[in-house]
Amino acid sequence: MQSRLRTLFAGIVFTVTVAILATGGAHPVQARSLHLVDQPPLMSGLTALPQSGSLFFVSNRNGSQEIYRHDFPGGAVKQITNVGAGAMESFPSASPDGKQVCFESHRTGNFEIFCTDRDGNNPTNLTNDPGDDGMPRFSPDGTQIAYHRRAAGEANFQIWVMNADGSNKRQLTFENAYMGEPFWFPNGTKLVFDGDKPDRNLLMINLDGSGLTVINNKPGEQRRPSVSPDGMYIYYDSSESGVFQIYRMLFDGSNQTALTSSGQNFLPQVSPDGTLVAFMSTRDGGDQEIYLSNIDGSGQTRLTSSVGVDVLPSWANPLPVCAPETLTVPFVNGPNGVTSQKVYGVVDVGGGRIGGGVELPPGGGIGTPPVTADGGDPRTAAATPAATTLTLTVSGSGHAAGTASSDAFYIYTNAQGGAVTPQHYTVYYNWVLWINGQHVESLIPGGQVPAYRADHTYTFQVSVPTGRLSFGVGDIAVGDNSGSYTVAISGECDSVDTSNNDDLFGYGYELWTDPVAPRAVADLKLGLTVHRQGGKDPLQGVEVYFYDGDPSSGGKLIQANTIPMLEVLDASASTFASFSSIPTQGKHVLCAVIDPNNRVPEGIETNNTVCREVDVLAPAADMIAPRVDNFKINNGAASVSDRGVSLSVSVSDTPAPSTNVQAVFFVEYVYNQANVFWEPVQTSNWLAYSGTPSTYAWQLSAGSGMKFIQAWARDQAGNISRYPYKAYINLVLPSEQVELNGTRSYRYFLRQGEQLTARLEPVSGDPDLYIWTPNTNEPPYVSNLRTGVDARTFVAEQDGVYQVEVYGYSAASYNLTVTTPGSLASLVATEGGIDPTKSLRSRPVVAVASQPGDQFVMPDFTPVANNNNMVYLPLIVR
Do residues 93 and 27 make contact, with C-beta atoms less than 8 angstroms apart? Predict the structure, then answer.
């Protein structure tokens, strides 16, 4: 027991206290009444206390080591666990929706991960296995939990990940050393943690177990990392100075800065809005207490003040709140002549949000799901889930039971950005809907519709796969032909106010300069790609201000510009500023502020400033950038079945006074379906360029699908190519998996008259085959049988890219074969077809013409050998 505690609390005074409690020592903390309020006695430079949310922490203030919750504002404290004598509850972590807390517990005799609701009810053991499990951390979307585990008989802890319900446990690290205390990057694809490699340092790993990298290797111990919500900074505690202090560094391990100096300080945790840091400290003597500071370490203020220790803080978002709203609205003419009216609300759906802006066509409504040959629909569940509930009380004339027709009562949800098409949907992208406890899938026209009674209450439960949908407006449409009605909405949602359903933001790597390597006293363009999630109407004239220096600390305004138009949902557009020169060479912080005058009401107003550091070069005789003339992956192959590929690049640097090509740089992108954008997932270092062409080995990121790679070049004078050369290749792996409602996309270029044949063989589950053409007005080629092989073959009617998508109608494993040009000998007439009971998708997961942008932030120049070209980049993603 003692060794386990030293592993978790090494170097912390709390170690002694916990050991005394755990072993029944002679001096336990005396039991006393619950301390009801913790409130800082003095702000001491703290910008502001949170006005919502909570902070979970561990305390022995009541005699045993239990989990507590501190609520903001006001400081009310509630005891969450009550195991009693000998309790060792620790390391709480709240789910992103604030409804659940998971923690480490010894109540079963070994360390397990338990979860309860936010008030401590309904405890569940998620691990329940031999050995020790601890330090749980919810993923940003709430679907997974990272933790560390020491299996029975093993000497060291390793990093593991499981689903939030405890299923699908999988080990990520397999080191002969301690690996523990994981924390997620905001994009949900990487973890940072501490480990003995070689000493206690901070490491990073991709979620598939690849890319294990040491990101700082300093004297002493570096431990307990946490990442700021924008992905820019990693906070951690370190004994580099001889005692433990809180440090902050950039996500790549640079710019390490101590934020504390008084006493010993541990376990920094950044607030969800990115404004505060909570940590524990011994500075006031005696017991450890929890402190708050501003994000830069200023304004350090004591939060707790109890007898005993208060440690291990962990932030929690506020519970979603929905104010009841009553709307009396006239009927309007809906799609296809059915009268309907939208009711807007930003509806929380268990980690995702209902997003959209259009109604689905009628024909989907209240009814029973289609029955398959095996007696059920693979997407349905046996029982009503514990999902978000909306209660709609609808008053009107009602109608009798009958068949689906223009005068039936309809309730239909919207597709995310989908167009109104003559198809019948109630549920899209595997939204699962229950009405009064009865599951609803979709109603085939002519099917039976239950009677709708006037002045009746319908309870809707909506379950949406997390990580799929964006912040936006959720539409629930109710319709009959009675002329008018009243709808009262209540339930769990973030807001029914549509004035703040927008979010505008940017990424640091998309704050670009032209030239890429700017020089003092030379003309420069500074631009930003602005992203928008949510919204109900297009935005016009979105302002962006550009600064030399951080505007919050006196940065100089360079220029103001506007983006003419930003559409709803997941949209992006660029704007830039032009200025004559940066007067001095050296490091400059360049910033862009989106909507600086707050003309756009946003749900999140704290992520509108984007900054990055730029190295401005001295003037030089050679100021002409090199050009990437050609770039091929595996000599231009369309597909590969192995992740190892070769990159061949040709670069020129003319005319005089060019200084010859020095190095090349590669960036790999994949399409992030959850966040709806092209995400850079890994980069090289600057690699020495030896001749035209030069060839480099590359390991594609894990997972089947299309992979885009950018190639950049740099010359001896430090000039960088203005634009990258982009190429893509399809990674087609055997027995690949696609999750429920997930998609894997592959692209093939065809000339007019060439033939493509695709054959999708299921190994398990039900994958469907879609092939989208370059003509956006054409429907896709589809094969979506529930069993057997899906296959399609066709001849291209025009030159262009054709996109093959494998869609998970259920979670599935599959083998895909694509032949182009030519035919597939094994394709026979009986393979492939359309299942008429399935709803067809109305658009590809990513537009066929979509590809990564032309901007990326180059790292500082450090040439390396060609055989050392892989670096995994923790990117700045909200």
Answer: no
Name residue 705's amino acid: G
Residue 23 backbone dihedrals phi, psi, to 5 degrees: -105, 10
Considering its fold, how many domains does the chain have in total?
4
Cβ neighbours of residue 169 closer than 8 Å, sequence gap 6 or more: 127, 160, 161, 162
- Whichever domain contains 50, its CATH number is 2.120.10.30
Question: Helix 2-9 vs helix 14-23: angle between axes, to the nearest 10 degrees?
Answer: 150
Element (H, E) at 3: helix 2-9
In a domain? residue 718: no
Same domain, 466 and 602: no
Residues 6 or more apart whose Cβ sits within 8 Å of residue 499? 601
Sign of CA dihedral 469, 474, 475, 476: positive
877 located within any domain: no
Can you read off the two tokens belonging to residue 831? 């393979």
CA distance 729 to 631: 12
User: Could you tell me which residues come within 8 angstroms of residue 103 by beta carbon, excluding any fewer than 6 positions away?
Assistant: 56, 67, 81, 89, 90, 91, 92, 93, 113, 114, 115, 136
Least confident range from 146-160, 489-503, 671-685, 825-839: namely 489-503
Decide if 832 is inside a domain: no
505 touches 878 (CB < 8 A): yes
What is the maximum span of the chain, computed from C-alpha positions, in angstroms? 87
Question: What token pair was written down for 647?
Answer: 């990159």
Please tell me whether residues 422 and 444 are part of one structural domain.
yes
Residues 265 and 340 in one domain: no
Residues whose CB falls within 8 Å of the CB of residue 775, separated by 6 or more in sequence, listed in order = 797, 798
| The pLDDT of residue 42 is above 90 | no
**Do the Cβ atoms of 870 and 683 come closer than 8 Å?**
no
- The three-class DSSP label of residue 206 is strand
Residues 306 and 233 in one domain: yes
195 forms beta bridges with 179, 201
Q: Both 595 and 462 in a single domain? A: no
Q: Which residues contact 805 (CB under 8 A, 6 or more apart)?
A: 743, 744, 745, 746, 769, 770, 771, 772, 844, 845
What's the domain range around 785? 743-819
**Are residue 534 and residue 610 in the same domain, yes or no?**
yes
C-alpha angle 510/513/518, rounded to 5°? 145
C-alpha–C-alpha distance, residues 178 and 154, integer Å: 11
Asked whether residue 773 is assigned to any structural domain, the reply reads yes
DSSP assignment, residue 636?
Answer: G
> How many Å apart are CA 258 and CA 249, to the nearest integer?
9
Alpha-carbon torsion angle 102, 106, 112, 113, nearest 10: 0
Please state whether the predicted TM-score (pTM) of the whole model is above 0.70: no
pLDDT over 50 at 472, yes or no: no
Q: Do 355 and 462 reside in the same domain of the chain?
A: yes
Q: What is the CATH number of the domain that holds 809?
A: 2.60.120.380
* pLDDT above 90: residue 697: yes
Average pLDDT over residues 600-613: 81
Residue 338 and residue 393 share a domain:
yes
Copy the structure tokens of residue 194: 């501490």
Residues 6+ apart with CB under 8 A from 16: none
